[in-house]
Amino acid sequence: MTWRGVIAEHRESLPVTDATPVVTLLEGGTPLIPAPAVSDIVRRDVFLKFEGMNPTGSFKDRGMTLAVSKAIEEGASAIACASTGNTSASAAAYAARAGIPCLVVLPAGKIAAGKLAQAFAHGATVVPIEGNFDDALEIVRSLASDLGVALVNSVNPYRIEAQKTAAFEVLDDLGHAPVVHALPVGNAGNITAYWRGYTERGAGPHMWGFQAAGSAPLVHGEIVENPETVATAIRIGNPASWDAAIIARDDSAGRIDAVTDEEILAAYALLSERVGVYCEPASAAGVAGIIKHADALPEGTIVCTITGHGLKDPDTATARIDLPATVPATIEAVAAAAELG
Ligand code: F0G
Q: Is the C-beta atom of 184 inside 6 A of ligand 1?
C-alpha cells in the first residue's frame, strides 16, 4: 500500500471537500510496535503507537496537515502558534510546504534543542518570551485574531479533528480496541482527539492520561502558575482542552494522574535501552503511568502513545551520560578503552 497522508487516508472522517488544498508531508501511518520489556513489567501485552515516526518527529503533524490546509482554504496568508516546541516545529514545516509565513512564540530557554533547530530550519519567525507556554498561548491567541492570522494550536478545531486518526490506526492495526490507552497530557488536545476517534468508531478503551508531577493542573483541579518538569513538552499549567480531557477521563472510566520526573526518566531509559524505541522525555509519561498503576490494569491489550522522537531533545540525553575521554587513534588504545581482551 502507498501511504497518502492523513487527509487522503481518512477523508470521509474529516471536514474536507474537493476544494480543500491538501498540504501534506505524508504524515500518519505510524507503527504500532510491541514492547515486550514493558509487557514483562506490567504483565499485559503492550504496544507503542510511535508518533515520533511522523515527518517532523511528533504527533503534531497529524493535526497540522488539516489545520494548514483549512487555513489556506479559508484564505489565511500566515499561521501562528505558541509552543513547548513540537507544535512550532510542525507548524514551521507545514507553513514552509504551503509557502506561507509562520510565527512561533516560545517560552525562552525551555525548548528542546532539536525542536528549536527545526523551527529555524523551516524559516519560522521565532519570538522567545520571558514567560511559560500558558503566557505564550494567551499572547498568540490575541495577536492572531488582531492580525487575521490562522492560529494552529490545538484550540484550532481542525487540529484535534485530524489527530483523532491515530485512534483509527490503532483500531485497524490491532483489529480491536485496546483495554487501556495511555498517553502524556500537556495542553490536553491529544487525549481529547484519541477519545473522539475511539468513540466515532464505537470503541471504548479506558483513557489514562499522565501529567508531569510539577505540571499537573488536571490532577490537582487547579491552574499551576509555575509549571516545572524535565519533560518540557508538557510543561503546561493551564491546559486549553481542560474540560474535554476531563470528559475523556470520565466517559471512558479512565484516569488522569501525575508521574514524577524520576518515573518519566526511568520509563524513557527503559524504552531506549530495552525496547529500542528512542523518545523524548515527555513521550515516556504514558509508559511511566502504566508501570506506576500496573496493579490496576484490566486484562487485555494496552497501547501507549509515544508522542515524539528522542532526537528532539539531545541535551536531556547527553546530560545523562559521562562522555568517555578521547583516546589515540590506534587499535590498542580503542581496545583498552573498550576494555576488550
Ligand atoms: N508529548 C509531546 C512530545 C508534546 O510535544 C506534547 C505537547 C504532548 C505530549 C502533550 O500533548 O498538549 O495534546 O496534551 N506539545 C505542545 C507543543 C504543547 O507546543 O508542542 P497535548
A: yes
